[in-house]
Structure formats: C-alpha cells, structure tokens
C-alpha cells in the first residue's frame, strides 16, 4: 500500500504491508511524521491509498458502507471532547442502557469511585468542555463512552500522553478492560501504553522497520530499542 497527501511530494507510506488478526492489539511507534496518524486515518476510512488496498475480512474498504463500518469503531483521543451536560449524558451519548449495564461499564472504566465523590453522582454537570473534571476523569468517561457502544475495533491515539502518572494508572487499567478481546490500534509515545501490545510495529520513512512483541524487540536491540532509549 502507498499513500501521499495531495500537497506533499514524498510518500507517507511506501510499500506498506501489514496483516492483522481479529482481536489483536497493534501498537504503531516511530518518529513524528512517520505515518502513524495516517495509518489510523486509513483504518477509519477518512482517507484512501493512492495505490493498493485496505482490506476488511478480505473485502476492499472502498466497496463497503463506511457509515455502517464506523459504528463498530471507538476512538479514544488525546483530548476528550465533552459537552455541557451530566456525566451520564456524556457517557451514554444517546444510547439506551440499563442501570445494571451502566454500573458494569462504570466499574470497567474505573469511574465508580469518581462518581461517588461527585456532588450529584452521575447527574453532576461536567461544565463547559468538561471543565469540572480532571484530564484523567475525562479520559475515563471517553473509555466508558466507548464501552457502552461495544465496538469491535478500538483506536487509541495518544490516549494517555497528557496525563500525570497517578491519573495514567487508573486510565491504563480502564484501557485494558476496553481493549480486552477487541482489535486494537495504538499510537503512543508512553511505553506503559504499548508494552502489552501483541505486536509493536516500528515505522521508519513510511515502511515497517521491524515488528514484534515488546520483549522480542528489546532483546533484538534494533530500531525500537534505540527509539525508546534516545
């Protein structure tokens, strides 16, 4: 697969070939501008390759209904957008869910303790853009929002990069519950976010420089080893 932007001269992805199994957790790492975000956009279907194909269960993505496909995707970005409403409204986002199911999701997203401390519990207004909440709390709401949709594909785009260490611990636990059994794609600089991935894909100049588990790549002492030690 090949890709370049209309206003760019160089290929962002060059002869890129990767097969992912259902339920696999894949982490993309590499220098800034190396093509990681481009890959996420290709997976979501925001852009298409100039040559080659993105296949879903053997079918060309360009031939499927992208609107239906995206219903099965949940994205947890670096900065979660919340609207001025209650915590519950921001989590359910128009989805009808039983109280029992909601409580399960609050537990899985490590939000139960947070909710207990809020003045009006789930009915507490988060303020404009979620200003009443910390970054870690907003990220856990984003995870709960994803869990409630029960997606097949998870995309984590620098989901913990803006958090302090204490907040990250809670969010990492929630992320493990979210990604368990689901096909997951991660772009992150923090080692803690990618360490447990089934495969780490090291991208250099739009191609795969090396791939393997964290343990395999550390033992190899190649591009990945150099990347995290510089």
Automatic annotation (TrEMBL):
Membrane-protein topology: Multi-pass membrane protein
GO cellular component: a single term: membrane
The keyword Transcription regulation is assigned to this record: no
Highest taxon above the source species: Bacteria
Domain (ABC transporter): residue spans on this chain: 3-230
Subcellular location: Membrane
Pfam families linked: ABC_tran
InterPro entries tied to this protein: AAA+_ATPase (IPR003593), ABC_transporter-like_ATP-bd (IPR003439), ABC_transporter-like_CS (IPR017871), P-loop_NTPase (IPR027417), Type_1_exporter (IPR039421)
Recorded GO MF terms: ATP binding; ATP hydrolysis activity; ATPase-coupled lipid transmembrane transporter activity
UniProt-listed SMART domains: AAA
Keyword annotations: ATP-binding, Membrane, Nucleotide-binding, Transmembrane, Transmembrane helix
Name listed for the protein in its UniProt record: Heterocyst differentiation ATP-binding protein HepA
Organism: Clostridium neonatale
Record gene name: hepA
């Amino acid at each position: 697969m090949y890709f370049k932007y209309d206003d760019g001269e160089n290929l962002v992805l060059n002869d890129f070939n990767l097969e992912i199994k259902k339920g696999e957790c894949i982490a993309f790492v590499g220098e800034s501008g190396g093509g990681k975000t481009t890959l996420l956009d290709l997976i979501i279907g925001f852009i298409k390759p100039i040559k080659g194909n993105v296949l879903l269960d053997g079918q060309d993505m360009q031939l499927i209904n992208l609107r239906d496909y995206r219903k099965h995707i949940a994205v947890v970005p670096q900065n979660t957008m919340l609207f001025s409403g209650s915590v519950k409204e921001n989590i359910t986002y128009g989805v009808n869910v039983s109280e029992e199911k909601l409580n399960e999701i609050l537990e899985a997203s490590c939000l139960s303790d947070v909710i207990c401390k809020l003045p009006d519990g789930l009915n507490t207004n988060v303020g404009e853009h979620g200003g009443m909440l910390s970054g870690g709390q907003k990220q856990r709401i984003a995870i709960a929002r994803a869990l409630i949709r029960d997606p097949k594909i998870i995309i984590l785009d620098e989901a913990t990069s803006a958090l302090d260490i204490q907040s990250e611990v809670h969010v990492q636990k929630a992320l493990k519950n979210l990604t368990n059994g689901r096909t997951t794609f991660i772009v992150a600089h923090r080692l803690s976010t990618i360490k447990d991935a089934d495969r780490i894909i090291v991208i250099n100049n739009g191609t795969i420089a090396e791939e393997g588990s964290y343990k395999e790549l550390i033992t190899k002492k190649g591009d990945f080893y150099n990347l995290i030690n510089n």
